[in-house]
Amino acid sequence: MKKTLKWFFIVGLITLVGIQFIPTDVNKQEVISTSDIRYVYDVPDNVMNILENSCYDCHSNNTNYPWYSQIQPVRLIMDHHVEEGKEELNFSEFANYSERRKRNKMRAILEQIEKSKMPLPSYLWLHSDATITLLQKDSIVSFLNRLKD
After folding, report:
1. Which of 14, 38, 66, 73 gets the highest tally of CB atoms within 10 A of its CB?
2. Do 46 and 139 contact (CB within 8 A), yes or no?
3. Domain encompassing residue 107
4. Domain presence at residue 125
5. Percent of the chain at pLDDT above 90?
6. E strand or H helix at 94, and its extent?
C-alpha cells in the first residue's frame, strides 16, 4: 500500500512539473484596436472603466494575467474561459459585428447586467474588485438604454 502511494505521488509530481512546459498563447494586445467598442459608440469614461475592470479580461483581446496564471493547469483553464468569453462577446472586435449583431449583443449585455449574471461568480472569487456596484450597474444600464433610443 505504501509503495503504491509513493508511486502515485511520484507520477503526480512528474505530471505536475511536466505540464508547466505546455506552451500557452497570450491574449494581450499592445494597442487598443480600432474595432474596439469605444470607437463604435461614445462610451462614457465611467462606463468604459467599468467594462475594462469587470469585463475585458474575458471579453476582449487584452487579458490582465494575475501571477497564478503562470501555473499549469490554472492557465489552461483560464485560457479556455477567455476563449469562451471572447466567442460570446469580444469588445475589442465590436466594430466588426453586423449592425444586427451589435444590437443583439447590447440587449444581451443589458440583460446580463440587470440580472447580475456578469461577471461570473467564479471570476469574482479571485477578482472581487470586478464586482459591479448598484451605482455602476445604473451607469451601464443608462448608457445601454440611451443607445436603444
Report:
1. 38
2. yes
3. 26-148
4. yes
5. 54
6. none
Whole-number Cα distances in Å, 69 to 20, 51, 96, 100, 124:
11, 21, 29, 36, 15
CA dist list (Å): 106 to 36, 38, 69, 117:
14, 13, 30, 15
Structural domains of the chain, count: 1
**Is 89 in a helix, a strand, or coil?**
coil
Q: What is the pLDDT of residues 83-129, one digit of tens each?
A: 999 999 999 999 999 999 999 999 999 999 999 999 989 888 888 89
- For residue 14, pLDDT over 80 is answered with no
CB atoms within 10 A of CB 105: 17
The answer to whether residue 75 sits within a structural domain is: yes
Name the nearest CA neighbour of 82 among 54, 60, 50, 105.
Answer: 60
As a whole number of angstroms, the distance between CA 55 and CA 52 comes to 6
Q: Which is more confidently placed, 73 or 56?
A: 56
Give phi and psi for 28, each to the nearest 5: -145, 115
